[in-house]
Each structure stands twice: as C-alpha cells, then as structure tokens.
Amino acid sequence: MERSMLSILAHHKSKSTVEKAAAIILKGCAIVSIIAVLSITAYMFISGTPALFKVGLTDILFGQVWAPTATHPEYGILYIILTSILGVFLAIGIAVPIGLLTAINLSEIASKRVRKVVKSAIELLAGIPSVVYGLLGILIINPLMYQLELFIFKDSLTHQFTGGSNLISAILVLAIMILPTLINISETALKTVPDDYRKSSLALGASQIQTIFKVVLPAAKNGIMSAIVLGVGRAIGEAMAILLVAGNSVNIPLPFHSVRFLTTAIVTEMSYASGLHREVLFTIGLILFIFIICINLVLTYILTRGDQHE
Amino acid sequence: MAKIQARNLNLYYGEKHALKDVSLDIMENKITAFIGPSGCGKSTFLKTLNRMNDYVNNVKIEGEILLDDENIYDSRVDTTILRKKVGMVFQQPNPFPMSIYDNVAYGPRIHGIKNKKELDVIVEKSLKAAALYDEVADRLHSSALGLSGGQQQRLCIARCLAVEPEVILLDEPTSALDPISTLKIEELLMELKNKYTIAIVTHNMQQASRIADYTAFFLVGEMVEYGKTKDIFSLPQDKRTEDYITGRFG
Amino acid sequence: MNNSIYEKKSRVIDNVVHVLIQLSTFISVSLLVVIIGYICYRGIPHFSFDYLIQTTSILKNTVGILPNIINTIYIIVVTLVIACPIGIGGAIYLNEYATNKKFVNIISFTTEVLAGIPSIIYGLFGMLFFGGVLKLEYSILTGSLTLAIMILPIISRNAQVALQAVPKSYREAALGMGSTKWYMIRSVLLPSAIPGILTGVILAMGRIVAESAALLFTAGSLSVLPKSLFGHLFSSGGTLTIQLYLEMAKAHYEQAFVIAFILILIILLLNFIAKWISNQFDVNKRG
C-alpha cells in the first residue's frame, strides 16, 4: 500500500489559525458581560455623583422637599427613598406568604395535573408586560382603593383625596408582579430537597404538614432566601407598572398618600428635566443602582454560604 | 406471640403484581429477616408494614396486616400513630440537615413533647440505646451531617427509638456501610430485640443467619418459605430456597 | 396513653394550613384569570383589523398601530441579531474552552448582576452611552443595543444549560474521529443544543415585547412608518408597549386595552412556542 500523503503535521498551521481565532472570538463574547457591568457601573457613578457635590449629600438624601423647578429649587429625595423601601418591604410582606404557600402546594401536595395548570399560569403571569399591570392597576385597583378611601376618610377635613392612586395600590401591584419570581424560585428550592428527608420524617409519625414545615422548608431555606432577595430586586426596580398607579406626587409614604418611588421619579421627569435637575435624576438612578448591587451581593453571599454547607 | 400478622397480602404497582398472597407472622421481641434477590418484593413487603407504600403512585393493596389485632389498612387508621408505633430505618443513612440533638428530638417534638428537660432525657437515652452517645456526647449541637456513615445510621436508629416505637423496620440498614460499622449495628440490633420487635430486610445471607431468629425468603413477589432461621439455612424445604442460600442464583 | 391506631388525632393546625395553601394557590391562579379575562373583556370589543394596519393620522382621520408593530419587529430582530451571537458565543466559551475557574466565576457573577439590573437602569445607561456618547440619539438602534445587554443573561444562561445537557460522549466521539474542537462545536454540539438555545431566544423575545422602561429613553416613542429599510434603524420608534403607555397616560383606555389584548396574544403565542420546543426536546432526550 502506498504511504498516505496525509501527514499529521500537514494542515496543522491553517487549522490552528481557525481554532485560535474561534477561541479568541468566543472569549470576547464571554467578556462582554464583564464589560457591560463595568461600563454600566462607571456611567451610573459618573452621571450620578456630580449632583451630590453640587447640591450636597445630606441635602439630597435627607431633604424633605422636592421642588426641582421652583425659583429656589430643592432636591430632597428622602420621601422618595423611604417610599421605595417601605413599598418594597410591604409588597414582599404580602407576596411571600402567598408565593411560598403556592410553591409548597406545587412541590409537595398538588397532583401532576393541578401542578401543570398552576405552573403554566404562573409562567404567563411572569410574562405579562409591566405596562399592562399598570393599566389594570389604574382601572381595577385604583377604583377599589378610592371606595376604601371614601369610606375611611368620609368625615376627614384634612385628608387629600387621591382617587385611589396611593401607596397601597402600588404595593398591591408590586406584590402581584413579584409573585411569579417567588413561586418559581421557591418551588425549585423545595424540589431539590432530597426525598429521604420527607420519607424519614413521615416514618417517624410526622404528618405531611409537619414534614413540610419542620424538615423540607428548613432544608430549602437558602433557596427560599434567594427567592425573596430576587423578589426585592424585582420590586425595587419596577417602574412602569406603578408609575400611574401610585399617584406620583412626592409625599411621606403613608398608606393613603399619593407617592413617588425612585424608579417613577426618574421616568416622570427625565423627558423634560435639564441641568442640575437632570443630574439629580441620575443621582436617583445611582441610588437605585447601589440598592441593586447590595441586593446582588446579599444573594451571592446566600448562595456561597449554601455551597459551603454541603 | 405474633406482634404483626400479614393475611393474604397482595400488592400491585399499576399492572405489576408485586406481592402475591403473602401471609406471615412477625414474632414479638424477635428479629425477623426478609431475604431474597433484588426485586423480589422483600422491601416492598417491609414498607407495607408501616404504610410507607401509601406515597407510591398507582399502588393497590389487598388483604390485611394486623398490628396487635388491629388492621393497619382499616380506613379509621391514623397513619401518624401507626408510624409512631412502627418505626423505620432506611438503607441510606438519612439524618436531617440539623444538629445531632435536633435529629433525635425531632420525633418527640412532633408528637408534642416541648419540655427541654424531658427532651434532654429522651435524647440521651435514645443515643445510648443506639450505642452512639459516647461518640457524640461532646458535640450534640453540631451538624449530624458531619458524622461518619456508620454513625449516621446509628443516629437514624436513635431517632427512630426516640419516639418509643414497638416495632422497628430496617430496610437493608448496613448495605451502605463498612464491615466494622455493620458489625456494630448488628450487635446493637441483638440488644434491641429484648425491648422491640424487629424486622430487617437484607440481601446479606450471613447477616440474616447471624442475627435473625426467623427468616422469610421471597422470590418474585412470593413468600417462598418462612421459619426459624436455623431451619431455613440448614434444612430448606423448598428447592428454590436451597438454590438461593447455596448461592446458585441471586 | 393512646394505644389504638384507630383513634385519629385531630390536627387543627394542619387543616388550617392546608386551607391556606389551597387559598394561596387559588389567589395566584385567579390573578391570571382576572387579568386575562379583563383585558379580553375590555379589549376585544374595540379590536378591529384596521387598527392593526393603519397609522394614526389626524389628516386622514385614522387610528392604528401599524408603525408600532413594525417598530416592535425591528427591535426584536435587531436586538436578537446583536445578542444571540454574543450570548451563545459566551456560553460556548464558558462551557467548552474556559479552564480558569476564577474567570468563569467572575463571568457568572456579572451575568447574575446583569439579570438583576432593573430595566430603568438599562434605560438610563442606554440613553447616556448609546444615545449620548455614540450619538445614536433616540433610535431603534439605541433601543436594540440597550435591550441586547439586558437579554444577554437570558440567552447565555439558556445556551449554557443546553450545552451542559449534551452528553460528554458526543464530544469525545467527534474529537476522537479527528475533528477539531471548533468543528466539533459547529457540527455536533450546537445542533444538539439548538432546542435549548431556541427556548432562551423565545424567552428573550417575550422580554423584549414586554419591555417599556428601558425603551422609553432609548428608542423613544415616535410612531411613523419606516421610509427605508436600514434608515429606520436610526429613527426613533415606539414599540407596542410604549404606545400602550402613551395611550394610558392620555387616558385613552379603549386603545390601551386593544394594545394590551394584542400584547397578551403575543405573549401567549411565545409561551406556547417555548413549551412546544421544550417538549420536542424532551422527546429527543428520551429517544
């Protein structure tokens, strides 16, 4: 037989060029996410810090008057920050019990058929655009809140009626919007709990409910914590759904007050703001961004702590 | 005296007839071993004794199992009380991801004991009964997952003892363990039988002959032969039993 | 002591908890029913085919959302064209090439961060960087570039999961026959991972269709028909969601609901397609 012309050394060069180029290009793709995070961080700080120096850190963060277009403009965003924190906190307070119990049902109790139906519903709920939630908030929740407001404050001489566009309405919308996140991630966490734990608990004479609450939930707590943290992130960043629902004027965050959140403050005024006013809006963006980064760090901490346990 | 009596027990997984007309008595304060090749139904039978098969989809059970003359498949039965009386230890050591103390105290707490002192007593007693106390006395509050496999399995036995069962079911409790841990658990079982009725599934015939007073041989869902262990191993009545224990199949 | 197994313990707490669990599930599901039901109830009566194929014009006295539909399609296509190669390429690198664990961890962390950043922040960044620094102003391209970063985590994560699901033996078989790594990836890995990758792309499309806050300050809100195929990239264009927001802000609720109805239909369709693809995928796996 004739010796093959194909040497294992031939073609090596041209092929390796393609190979190398592919590796480099692919690495470049992977690095895009790092570049993106770095540039977003850089731009948020570059655009958000000037106003802090011009107006003064305490005047912005702790100022109680927001009057950017007045002759002597004031840029206090204390109430806006408080609204975001309180609103998110309460929305989580409403959504966590409902979401967690639904997740428990999906993972531990429901039959396959029920599970399939509920899961599809939750997936769809997650896909509904924020503006649609906003639209429904205005036309369903606000009128209901207005009725409640009329009932509670019918004799009040000082209450400023909001037509239902108030903090409670916004909290309800937020709570609904974060439900899918809570349910999906908690369910995944519950599903990863080994069946052995359930079996041995039941074999000790525990009821199903006792087993769920005393063994399964504690074993899944890291995953459930991540669900809650992600829910917080989702709620604090939501803008369009609560923009019109919350009434959108800067007030102390009390249940029946019309309020403004960090996100809605940016959306409302960005289109016409200019100069220092615009810079302050970027500062609000920076504050929101810092909140989000903190939430991410907490999340990473929870997840790595979970790894170490195993 | 018979503690548990199975009467014409049939079990189906969907279409599959997994237990065929099994009848046998499990004697009080004795160790009864179930042997047979994999898939013969011995584990399935064990699980019917405290109704852990209830959680398998598509399972259908006919016949009855009497525990102290009460049918455990009666509709009036509260399975939590049944399982308090008939405890179970699984093949894989499966302590909860909690401290050693909390693992043992889990059962008593579930059944309503809240008093700390009372729990302390139960935990200590159960760990001693499972021959684990001396090894873990100084770290009761550290995670149970830090224990060795053999220790974990003894912890699971202690956890089971803590609810003061009358019967203990063990599903191949030593198959995941090394020989020394296995020996410890066997010694433990020999001691426990003075107080409890024990049923153990094993595919290790030496183990059955070492510790069991009675042995039942299962083959494809059928209970082929049942009797005193020494009789089964020395004078098997059925050809199939003889083939199995002499190692001709399995 | 209670000695008979026949006496059932009454478990009041268990029963209460059971009721709460069922109630919560009912609430979660009924929310969806109410939302979709209400949108259909308010949207369908005003829905007309003309509305889909007309442009809003005072001169011609017509209302319609054709430009918004076209803008939405433009943004979906351009965003995916930008994000897919980068997202899938990055996933391939992480799964097949990367050896440095620290580097992989950093990228996973940044991907996680990107997934957590709210759209309003993307909007600000896009406006500053693509709109301002790159001088693209309010344009479909600005919006698409912004959304491309936003959906990158969805695409790359799904692609990574899909690649991980490809059995190791496939790779070994291809490499063992003398195929180069890149050829193995193109000829063996990607085709087997396609269904998973596609699921990610469909999910990303859903996210793009639903997006509003990130587009308001990047793609803007203009609704005019494109004058040229590529020129339109550089013109401002509002998507369906943006148009919905504008109608809502003007209290034109009838039109808002028609758009909401159309959006829900699109979301349902995308959901259905994603499900269908992943079902196909399962069948392949079994076979």
From TrEMBL, chain A:
GO terms for biological process: phosphate ion transport. It is found in: Cell membrane. It is a multi-pass membrane protein. One of its GO terms (cellular component) is plasma membrane. Pfam families: BPD_transp_1. It comes from the Bacteria. InterPro entries: MetI-like, MetI-like_sf, Phosphate_PstC, Phosphate_Transport_Permease. GO terms for molecular function: phosphate transmembrane transporter activity. The keyword Transmembrane applies. Keywords: Cell membrane, Membrane, Phosphate transport, Transmembrane, Transmembrane helix, Transport. SUPFAM superfamilies: MetI-like. Its main location: membrane. Residues 81-299 form the ABC transmembrane type-1 domain. The chain crosses the membrane at residues 21-46, 77-103, 124-146, 166-185, 224-246, 280-303. The keyword NAD does not apply. Belongs to the binding-protein-dependent transport system permease family. CysTW subfamily. Part of the binding-protein-dependent transport system for phosphate; probably responsible for the translocation of the substrate across the membrane. This is Phosphate transport system permease protein. It comes from Longibaculum muris. The lineage of its organism: Bacteria, Bacillati, Bacillota, Erysipelotrichia, Erysipelotrichales.
UniProtKB/TrEMBL annotation, chain B:
It is found in: Cell inner membrane. GO terms for cellular component: plasma membrane. Residues 4-245 form the ABC transporter domain. SMART domains: AAA (SM00382). One of its GO terms (molecular function) is ATP hydrolysis activity. Pfam families: ABC_tran (PF00005). Its main location: membrane. Keywords: ATP-binding, Cell membrane, Membrane, Nucleotide-binding, Phosphate transport, Translocase, Transport. One of its GO terms (biological process) is phosphate ion transmembrane transport. It is a peripheral membrane protein. Part of the ABC transporter complex PstSACB involved in phosphate import. Responsible for energy coupling to the transport system. This is Phosphate transport system ATP-binding protein.
TrEMBL record, chain C:
GO terms for cellular component: plasma membrane. It is a multi-pass membrane protein. GO terms for biological process: phosphate ion transmembrane transport. It is found in: Cell membrane. The chain crosses the membrane at residues 12-39, 73-94, 106-130, 136-155, 188-209, 258-277. GO terms for molecular function: phosphate transmembrane transporter activity. The keyword Cell membrane applies. Keywords: Cell membrane, Membrane, Transmembrane, Transmembrane helix, Transport. InterPro entries: MetI-like, MetI-like_sf, Phosphate_PstA. Belongs to the binding-protein-dependent transport system permease family. CysTW subfamily. This is Phosphate transport system permease protein PstA. It comes from Longibaculum muris.
